[in-house]
Specification:
The protein is mainly alpha-helical. The chain contains 6 helices and no strands.
Length: about 200
Amino acid sequence: MRRKTFDALLTSGGLVLAIILLVAGGLLTWASTFVGDQVKTQLSQQQIFFPAKGPATASPEIGPFLNQYAGQQLVNGQQAEAYANHFIAVHLKESNGGQTYAQLSTKAKASPDDTKLAGQVATMFNGETLRGLLLNAYAFGTMGRIAGSAGMGAFFGAPIMLLRYLLAFAHLRRVSPDSELCPPCPPDRASRSPPVG
């Protein structure tokens, strides 16, 4: 294979990779912005506010995680995760003696006339549903942040690959059209037998 052909293939590959990185960076940045906007819009519409610092956040299971957001409206994935795992989950655990929705529901089915137990099941269902929705917002918010970071990485890599392409193109212009990638061995070396060792 001619050296110039091989170098042209590699050079073209570098240009293609730079274009792919630019396109990927644009799409990842768009995805990050879209997901972030959707999470913020959906959470804002719920009108959830963190409690102010005080008795509601005095518990060591709540305060260290929620005090940084005291009084703020819940509008992003990190806030949703904190509220779901360190406010709703703690209150559900306290109100139902650490039992899960499934455990309470099973008990309620066995005692259909127990209105107190039915109320606990309804509270647990509503709380776990809201908690699950908030954790979904957290998951999507995290994916959006990862997409944004990947987009920045792609935008950082694209100029590097473009510079590599320009340098390779300059080198390609200096390569002789007749040079071979692996020149053949001279006849006297090709006919020699390998040394016996």
